[in-house]
User: What shape does this take?
Amino acid sequence: MARFVAQRLAALVATLTAVSIIIFLAVRFLPGNILDLFFAGDNTATPQEIAAAEKQLGLTGSYPEQYWRWISHAFQGNLGRSLLSQQPVSAIMGSALPIDIELVILGIGLALVVGVPLGVLSAVRRDKGVDYFSRVAGLVGISVPSFWLATLLLIFTSRVFHWVPSLSYVSFFKHPIANLEEFALPALSISVFTLALVMRLVRATMLEVLNLDYVRTARAKGVRRRAVLVRHALRNALIPVVTVAGFEVGTIIVGAAIAEIIFGLPGVGYQIIHAIFQRDYPVVQAAALIIAATFIVVNFAVDLLYGLLDPRITVA
Amino acid sequence: MSAATVAARLVRRRRLALPARWRNPVGITGAAMVAVVCATALVGRFLWTTDPNNPAWTRLQGPSWAHPLGTDDLGRDTLARIIHGAQVSLEVGAVAVGISLGAGLVIGVLSAFYRGLLDLVLMRLVDVVFAFPYLLLGLLVVGLLGPSRLHAMMAIGIVFTPQFARVIRASVLEVMGQPFIESARALGAGDLRIIGRHVLPNIVAPLTVLVTVYFSQSILAESTLSFLGLGTQPPEAAWGNMLANARGFIDSDVWMAVFPGLAIMFAVLGFNFLGDGLRDILDPRLGTVADAVVAKSKT
Assistant: This one.
């Protein structure tokens, strides 16, 4: 087990390093000289001003030096300053992260809370009305573009209920009701894809598991139907579901970025997309690193969880 | 009844009876939907000849006989733009899947066939690309190269390569374990011959399913990128950027937002149905996209 964890940890560090290098290089190769953007096309900058700008943007020295400087600063929490607002990037990210975290938690939560029971129901009442409906709904759910769903939801609530979610962000800890109101539509539009995926997967694995010998033994022993379902079948069927849900966090992070744009929530996704259009490269670099690092760490945690739940993986 | 009548009846019945696994309503529906999308993309503009970029009509109209899907905020005909969007989506899907398939085949076959250090290195590279959520990679690539449909195609192709590579590698490994490969070697077949004549034909089944599933994902990805302004650029019509445009006008004209989204959903759903149906025919064991994701942790 320890060997498994150590292996995965090594892979985590290696991947993080490679990804950070890619992000670093990607931003350095953006077309257009960063300095031109910094001076907004003003050609009268003196050499001292240019040198000072270079120093501020971290462009002095060779690429490895720049990379090392960027990474060591990042570890200390200094991610540079935004080119546009001059605010420290870490402050921008700090206020943006809670929005993303909440969106992702709500998205995954909704997907699991609704998807798992529906999948179980679908498997148990196979080929009856509920099953047929869930299967079609499942296929439709993985085909709906989340940004269209969000737009439709907005149209629906504004026309039918004459209500739109507020545009200014309030923290959950300060105003829980207002916060949940604000996050309801975005969370819903993000969760649909994963919900459908989870429902289909739970149905498939439950169907497999319900045919196995040990389930038949339990029923023959006289264990009640519900206990058989939950304690024996579901527990084992949930293993691949947990893994898939974990990997789907990446999709949800992406969906969250899009939802942030549509609903005007200033999360990390919103920041990175606007920063790319405005060539605000310190923000792009920092946001990309945060998103990628989150994704990698979550995958690592899911890998570990899978190893814990299914001992066959760690021994193999 | 004469023998001739009986024989004639038998022949007729055999022609109409599809093998059991082919009687798949989901797959057939999917095939029909995909056919509709392809037909729209290929011949749509000859059947409905209105210019998608000509802002000649009254703005923000709902559906009418002259404009079955209405007009947009500049007075362009929505139906013509949807047809053009079908061309864009299919083109992006084909190119992106082509890139992923090509690269995935090379990586997957090479690492499974030669194993050892090559396998390790290639799979680590694949892991690094896989570590990026697809939108982030798309953002970086497009941010690097500038927003355009071509760059979006490349970004999507790169992003999907790891999944192709993994599944192909797993399938090739399975094929390599079969005794007929060993016999082929014993008979003196060279590497290329084994790959070409023995390995590739046996991985067609999982490949077909992959291609259909990722075609639908590419359409979704392209519309997401163009929605964000990073794919097909306006004024050229793509379903994603039509939807982005529509967002500003949902108070005055709801229809603008409905049709592009419906088109995206129809196309994606069609390919997903088709993929499900094909998988049922080719090998029910193959499982869904979700299974391929789970397989990641086992490789």
Remarks:
- Chain B has one domain: 40-298.
- Chain B touches chain A through 53 residues (CB under 8 Å).
- Residues 14 and 178 of chain B are 35 Å apart (CA to CA).
